[in-house]
Amino acid sequence: MNTECILLQKHDHVATITLNKPERLNALDFEMLARLEDLLEELRQDDEVRCVVLTGAGRGFCSGANLLGSSGEALSAGGLGVREAVMRINQVLVSITEMQKPWIAAVNGPAVGGGFSLAMTCDLAIAAQSAYFAVNYARIGMVTDMGSTFLLPRLVGLRKAKELAFFGERIPAEEALAIGLVNRVVPDEALMERALEWAANLASGATLAIGAIKLGMQRALHSTYRDTLHWEAMMLALIAQSEDAAEGLMAFFEKRKPNFKGK
């Protein structure tokens, strides 16, 4: 049995990160947070990695963030300790969203609270049929964090987001699919196969273009239409100079499949 809190595998330009504290349904703690921080920097700098899959060991994806102990005393006391913990996990989320490589959440079980936010931060999400989601902050007298306040209304609409956050009820995988929280629902045994298929497809694609599209869409969430048009024109001029852009156009005219290198 591997005792590392987070596992990393790399194969054919795909990195798979597995949260590995199954006895606690992979609730994030400071040990896992520190390891995630290191891994994110490693993956950002590794040009051989062109797509990342995030999943959990055992029967859970991630049951939340447990950065201040389980009693709630440290959290209820407030102060700089709470702010420091929240800002550290926030930086992990920002690193995922700003990394110019696509991330796929392979949600194998409960994704609750902070685990829900972690899955939603990824660019794409595939859920096992037995998985479920919950935005359960209000049920424990807390406020949505880790980006849920920003992401949830944009994914499902404002009224539905309020319903999910106010009541904190479980959202089965099929409902999550119907309201736009995930891209696909697959049988449990097919989850990693499908996630890795998607990852392989993305990893063989035009990495720079995909990264620019990712950043552009996120930027457009809080930009004007005119500003977005200007940004698109600027990025098009930059990406057009890449090797992959030249290969893509050549392959189009030669009626063949492009061989992208991520450059």
Structural features:
single chain; 263 residues; alpha/beta; 11 helices; 9 strands; 49% helix
Describe this structure in a few short sentences.
The protein has eleven helices and nine strands.
Strand content: 5-15%
Q: Widest sheet: strand order? A: 1-2-3-4-6-9
Mind describing the biggest β-sheet? 6 strands, mixed
Number of helices: 11
Give unreliable regions as ranges: 70-74
Mean pLDDT: 91
What's the end-to-end separation, in Å? Answer: 38 Å
Structure overview:
The chain has eleven helices and nine strands. The chain has helices at 30-45, 73-77, 80-98, 114-121, 148-156, 158-167, 173-179, 191-203, 207-220, 225-239, 243-254; strands at residues 6-11, 14-19, 51-56, 103-107, 111-112, 124-128, 132-134, 171-172, 184-186. A hairpin with a 2-residue loop joins β1 (6-11) and β2 (14-19). Mean pLDDT is 91; it is low at 70-74. A six-stranded mixed beta sheet has the order 1-2-3-4-6-9, with helices on both faces. Strands 5-7-8 form a three-stranded mixed beta sheet. By secondary structure, the protein is an alpha/beta fold. The relative contact order is 0.12.
Secondary structure layout:
Elements: E1 6-11, E2 14-19, H1 30-45, E3 51-56, H2 73-77, H3 80-98, E4 103-107, E5 111-112, H4 114-121, E6 124-128, E7 132-134, H5 148-156, H6 158-167, E8 171-172, H7 173-179, E9 184-186, H8 191-203, H9 207-220, H10 225-239, H11 243-254
Parallel strand pairs: 2-3, 3-4, 4-6, 5-7, 6-9
Antiparallel strand pairs: 1-2, 7-8
Helix pairs in contact: 1-3, 5-6, 9-10
